[in-house]
Design a protein that fits this description.
The chain has 196 residues and is an all-alpha fold. The chain has helices at 12-26, 33-40, 44-51, 54-78, 84-101, 109-116, 122-147, 154-170, 177-195. The chain has a domain at 61-195: Tetracycline Repressor, domain 2 (Orthogonal Bundle), CATH 1.10.357.10.
Amino acid sequence: MQIMPRSQSFTPDELKARALWQFWSFGYDATSMDDLVKATGVSRHGIYKEYGGKHALYLACFAHYQDTVVSPAFAQVEAQSSTLDNIRRYFEFQISTAENLGLPGPGCFVGNASTETSPHDTEVHKHVAHHNARLKAGFAHALVGSAGKPASFDALAEVILVFATGLWAASRTTDSASRLQQSVAEFLKLIEGQTS
């Protein structure tokens, strides 16, 4: 009797989505292959066959995070006519998402990676640097739109990036969305004074 090979019961995107949540919630080092098998419902063999192992799957999660989490939140900041109000809406969107996930929450996946794995992993460092460059460019673009004239807001965009990173770290330790919202409101008042 010939045994037919079992068909694949998952898609690569489903595997990435479930693995992303595992890494995002618990970090890279604390996540074992057994944890990934349990979280994804995919066997070790299936994970190795699709991605070659834990590290390659972790790297694949960065693109999935950009596509499913960062881009929906950041698209309006990157839009041609964006202003400081778009930056405000970006923070509101992200705080609302964090609140829906439950506060305290997992913070930012890339922010977590920047402190856990990026310092000693060149591939992760590249993903973190790409993410930060994207956010900084988007913030700078919106600041130019607020000023209504060509100007260099590179340094101020870097300040917003650092604030955003800190805010998502704070979301891991607070159960109060209003605390995060108040911090954003006060911060953006300071930024507005620099663009008028």
